[in-house]
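Possible regression after last week's pipeline update?

I re-ran a chain I had predicted before the update to compare outputs. Posting the input and the new output here so someone can diff against the archived version. Not blocking, just want to make sure nothing changed silently.
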Amino acid sequence: MTTVVFSRIPTDPFRVLICLLLTAFAFGCAGSRNSVQSLQQQPCTPDPDFHVRYLGTGCFLMDFKGNKLLTDPFVSNPRALRTVAGTIGTDTAYLDRHLHKEDLQGVRMVTAGHAHYDHLLDLPYLCSHIPTDARLCVNSTAKHILASYGLAQPICIMDSLKGDSLTEGQWAYSADSSIRVMAFSSLHPPQFMGIHILNGRLTEDMVERPTRMRDWLQGRTHAFLADFMENGRPARRIYFSSSMAPAPFGLFPPRLLTEKSVDAIFIGASGDHDAHRYPRPIIELTRPAKVYLIHWESFFRSKDRKARAINRNRLIRFYKETKAMVNDSVPVIVASPLRAY
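New output (post-update):
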């Protein structure tokens, strides 16, 4: 029998449904209908050896000289009503239109910040197209969920390997050592009016595959440093956090930067925040050469339509605050779904 552990979540079924509906409304409808096109068109000088493609929410395909990292694999974007009141799963035809199978060759590692469906739903299908030795770096709850699929790829549980703002974690390497990642304790903010839903965790493997949003419990939340290696040394380094975690969550010991500085950070920009606790501490720590703002758009909206901000005013505020925190030469990029950088 699967064991489920919850904390700070309504247990009455009616209250849970109301929370889910309110969350869907907030994430699907709170944003202005006006586009954020002017922010998305900010100039960015490409790196000839390091390419990234944003697939929406927290999903990126990052490529350094043919070695690829896939983050928070979610592309399908099922609609709100179906998500909160029906069953959800990967729309394979939709996914194949936007992510070609050949693009997945060369994936060496996969990371997921936590185990909610909007960070993990499409991984089982994508695993049928990525190499079988690609390492899946996830939390223990994600491991228990994925057990129901019998995936060929090895799963690395990051919970016991993670560090924090004071302590280094352990590097997890890809099979060919072309990529390594280190996880750090992060935090998932409340989704709606201080309500934090689906923040439970699993302690045993699921037997049946998940079919509803409530099956994708959160588990531990992680941020990541990821290094793309060349000749045994980090050639490109990124920081990735798909949750808006206030300091000290999401931070790492500064001494890790003595080996390699951070080339780019990828940070969530969807909700309300205190800029002095997020994102200022991570920007001051990493001093990145590029900043990508992610997880800002409604993930209940088809990618065949123009992306809509979860909350346009908050996104613009976040962009302006972030821009003021970095040097004028550092681009702050509002990542546009399906665009390559």
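Follow-up from reviewer: compared with the archived run. Residues 108 and 134 are 4 Å apart (CA to CA). Marking as no regression found.
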